[in-house]
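Sample 1 of the test manifest.
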Amino acid sequence: MPRTLLIIDDEHDLLTFLKQVFSSEGFEVTTALDGETGITAAREIHPSLILLDIMLPGMDGWEILRVLRSDRETSDIPVVMLTARTDPESKWEGWQGGAVDYVTKPFTLTDIIQRVKEIVVQTESLRGER
Amino acid sequence: MASIKRHLTFGYSLLAILVVIIGTVFTVSTNRRTARKDLQNSAEAFVRLSASRLNSIFDVYYESAYQMFFEQCQDVLHESRDISRVEIISMDGTILFSTRAFSDPSFIPEQARFGHVDPGELRAVQSLNMTSEANDHLVIYFPVIETWGPHRHTLRYTFSLKRLTASTTSMIIQALIIALLTIVLILIFTQPLAKKIVNPLRDLAFHADMLAQGASTKQIEIHRNDEIGDLMRSFNSMAEQMTDQLETLRKTNLQLENANRELKTLDQMKNDLIASVSHELRTPLTTAKGYVEYLLHIAPEVLPREETERSLSTVLRNINRLRGLIDGLIDLSLLQRESFSVDILPFSPEDVLSSLKETYLNAAHPNGVKVHFHDHLPPDCQIKGDRDRVIQVMENLINNAIKFNKPRGFVDVFAEPLDGRIQFRVKDSGIGIPKDSLPRLGTKFFQVDASSRRKYGGLGLGLSIVSSILQSHGVSLQVDSEINEGSTFSFSLPMVKDESLKKVGKVLIYEPNRDFGSMVQARLAEMGLHCIVASSLDSFTETLSRERVHLLIADPVSENEVCDETLLLRFRDSGHKMTPFIFVTSVDRSQLSVSPHTVLRKPVSLSRLTRTVQTVLEEVRDAPDAADH
């Protein structure tokens, strides 16, 4: 089963870029520009991991995270928050909201790839144990 | 307060009582002494007078004619008011007779026994006419030394002091009555006096309390000219000053509070700005950095050329976006300063629209927002303004309209003529702006709701830049908004009447500095004006002999000398009787002998020059009869 990745961000360029990068890393990448499409996509494809931007038009990242966590279909998908905000408060909010990791923009590419891979592998092994 | 009255009343009363008591004691004692003396004297005189009579009778008494004696005694008793008793005492102290017998109903003369007197006492009074006294009576002994017999006896008169005591008592009573009366009078008189002192003090106290509580005080009414009146006047002026000072303080306080609030708001804005600047700068940086890293480390070889190109162009685009953000910040700080100037020149609105269409028409916008253009521009129309700044304004407005839109919303861009101007309108189907926020639009860093910054990003500088740019064009931004329906932003710029520049289009430039001359020429050529440059007086005259121009722009200096008169003479002689001219020179106006339409002092900005040229030419066009062409 191929590893799937859902990226929700309103930055078109960034989406294109991340899609390119993770595709070449062997992921099947789906992108969404806003929360609603993102949530719908998450329910449909049940990705291995979601990269979620916080500052989005309409629903913001926290709201999307809450929706994903409260939905049984999507509650077990690990979510990595992406944000340009660096203040500790938002990080704290992220941990409490149930995000597994928190990546600040601008990120280092190798770092984000490694983190995403690690989390996906961990989640898979956990599921395998179950 | 009441204690003043009490003190006054009590003090005066005490004083009065003291005076009365001392007076009474003094009077009574003096009086009593005198009265007693009088009484004693009269008693002694009485005794002397009556004693012999009684003596003689007493003899008779012994002869049992006591009835007569009694009568005599009674007479004696009646003769003096004060006498209470007369007694006859024998040498051995036996009281032989006492007038007490008269008041004793059981008295029998033969058996009369009246008791004894201490003989020692009698002996002591034998030799003299002795007077002894007690509290309530005066006793006078009168020894009778008779020749007539063995009986030697003493008359003892007892005078009552009751009358004296009674008069003393009545005197004391009178004194007491006087004292009481005085107290009553004091009470009656001190009351209003106290009132006169206490009431104004109470008034003062009341007003002072009011003042202390910060209530605005009325002036105390003053009806008196004494010290209390003075005090009240002082109080009034003090209260007035205090009220003034309080008012000043209150105002200063209010100002400080407002200033503080403003500072706090500014501080909050600054913090928000730092947060959003960091967010806004980070976002494009992320993409750019990501691509660069990707190209550098991950896929340097495997990537096809077009992929690399695409990546790099994305990097470039994001870098440009960063630059745009930084430019916005710089623009704004520039626009805040007075020195900011715009280059107002005629330009084609068509130009602006095509530039905008290039940017927005086929691009994919976030949220699937679509941008439509509706331009109904007259052919060859030109408007006055700074082309690049107008494009910036439109981009800002359109970007805002896209950003604050609903998903799959639309943005309509209009450009159409309206009352000799071209109106630009940007209409969106967005979230709208609350009525109460409308006045604050265009305030630096202002976004309608605090969460919108997070939601929509951006620095909140857009409209503030737009307002500043439009302001320097002398126009204002109109906003029309309906919550959840969308907003329309519009402004208009004046159209240049097309024929104006074409009809009056020839300009002669006399400028000894060739570089400056050709710079002006190039600039005016952009405006569609045909310019001839002359750099010497000879070529100037030569040009005038064959050309008719509509405007002369000249620096009236030839070989470092002011030659404005010569210049103008030659110009007018060549048939340009009414043609306007502008001097652009470093020479002071006072050094000129002629008065040109306009003098621009060097150094002058090109935009200022072009504006002036435009104005002068428009004047010529509007009053064609004045110009002789």
